[in-house]
């Protein structure tokens, strides 16, 4: 596999020197660079909160049943409840602009972000919530981008995994919990792989022998997603089927005739999604993770994917 530095160089390089008009390939790279830049800006503009947990035991959050993403009930400055999904694919927190207005939150500044669904860059306010609570979890002075993004749908916001207190974070999709507690992953442990933490949680995998960076994205309702540029080199069982289209964001699906490897997991002839907008990276969403245990060691830069039965055995 290629190294992280190689992937960073390829993702960060600019093809603007080729001159106008930009080809579709160049335009896709520019959009991908804008998306990554937005994630980095969210990471730097929204610093981690001051976290307080009253109980010495691990913090366990119950997720709302029947959701396509890990959703929790949240109160903001004592008001709510509001629905937030906890997202490993977000560099920072997002709060719907309508809720920010409802709470009377004042702008601390602004941030320009790129919305892949809309295909445009937008200036949004940065706001701060004095007390954010979800069950026994309390986060003080948490900052959000106040934005009405299409990805929110009817939900009220996004909590980035980076805003959670220190410790291991485990998403138990089948059990309906998110836990934060002490402990550490071992680099040679079963199902453990290195991950990049910023701006979003990412791992390096392979698709039919081709190295690919995958964003581990609990905020996505889809499963294994491949970039269209890579999909063009692969063989599928029939034509790809349109799933949805929102501006430049076109999502298709089909059965790959091949193998996807992510750490110790090997998927033969899997159902995958294909997105033309992202030329350099894939995505691992909640549809794939729904029967897995996902544990992230943010201190050591390690990630573990396991089946619940496998976790009990170890």
Describe the protein.
- The chain is α+β, with helices and mostly antiparallel strands and 314 residues long.
- It has helices at residues 4-12, 24-45, 97-102, 228-231, 286-289, 308-313, and strands at 50-52, 59-62, 71-76, 79-87, 94-95, 110-115, 120-134, 137-146, 157-160, 168-172, 177-181, 192-194, 202-207, 210-216, 224-227, 241-246, 249-255, 259-262, 265-268, 271-275, 281-284, 293-297, 302-306.
- A hairpin with a 4-residue loop joins β22 and β23 (302-306).
- The chain is globular, with a radius of gyration of 19 Å.
How does the overall form come out from the CA principal axes?
globular
Report the average pLDDT across residues.
82
Based on helices, strands and strand pairing, what is the structural class?
Answer: alpha+beta
Total count of helical runs of at least 4 residues:
6
The biggest sheet, with number of strands, parallel, antiparallel or mixed sense and barrel status, is: 9 strands, mixed
Distance between the termini: 28 Å
Radius of gyration: 19 Å
Catalogue the unreliable spans: 1-21, 33-38, 49-55
Strand content: 35-45%
Sheet with most strands: strand arrangement: 16-17-20-15-21-14-13-18-19
* β-strand number: 23
Helical content class: 10-25%
The string of secondary-structure elements, in order, is HHEEEEEHEEEEEEEEEEHEEEEEEHEEH
């Amino acid at each position: 596999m290629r190294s992280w530095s190689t992937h960073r160089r390829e993702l960060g390089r600019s093809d603007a020197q080729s001159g106008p008009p930009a080809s579709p390939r160049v335009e896709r790279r520019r959009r991908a660079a804008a998306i990554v830049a937005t994630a980095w800006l969210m990471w730097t503009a929204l610093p981690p909160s001051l976290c307080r947990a009253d109980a010495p035991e691990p913090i366990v959050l119950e997720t709302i049943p029947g959701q396509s993403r890990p959703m929790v009930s949240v109160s903001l400055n004592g008001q709510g409840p509001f629905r937030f999904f906890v997202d490993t694919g977000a560099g920072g927190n997002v709060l719907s602009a309508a809720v920010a207005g409802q709470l009377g939150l004042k702008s601390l500044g602004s941030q320009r972000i790129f919305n892949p669904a809309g295909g445009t860059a937008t200036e949004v306010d940065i706001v701060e919530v004095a007390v954010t609570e979800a069950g026994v979890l309390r986060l003080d002075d948490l900052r959000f981008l106040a934005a009405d993004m299409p990805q929110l749908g009817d939900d009220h916001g996004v909590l980035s995994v980076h805003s959670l207190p220190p410790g291991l974070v485990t998403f138990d999709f089948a059990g309906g919990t998110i836990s934060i507690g002490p402990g550490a992953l071992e680099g040679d442990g079963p199902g453990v792989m290195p991950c990049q933490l910023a701006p979003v949680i990412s791992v390096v995998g392979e698709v039919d022998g081709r190295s690919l960076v995958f964003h581990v994205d609990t905020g996505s309702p889809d499963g294994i997603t491949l970039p269209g540029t890579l999909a063009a080199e692969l063989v599928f069982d029939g034509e790809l089927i349109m799933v949805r289209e929102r501006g430049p964001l076109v999502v298709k699906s089909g059965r790959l005739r091949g193998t996807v490897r992510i750490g110790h997991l090997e998927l033969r002839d899997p159902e995958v999604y294909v997105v033309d907008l992202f030329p350099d990276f894939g995505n691992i969403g909640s549809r794939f993770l729904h029967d897995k245990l996902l544990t992230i060691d943010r201190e050591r830069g390690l990630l573990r994917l396991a089946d619940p039965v496998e976790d009990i055995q170890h």
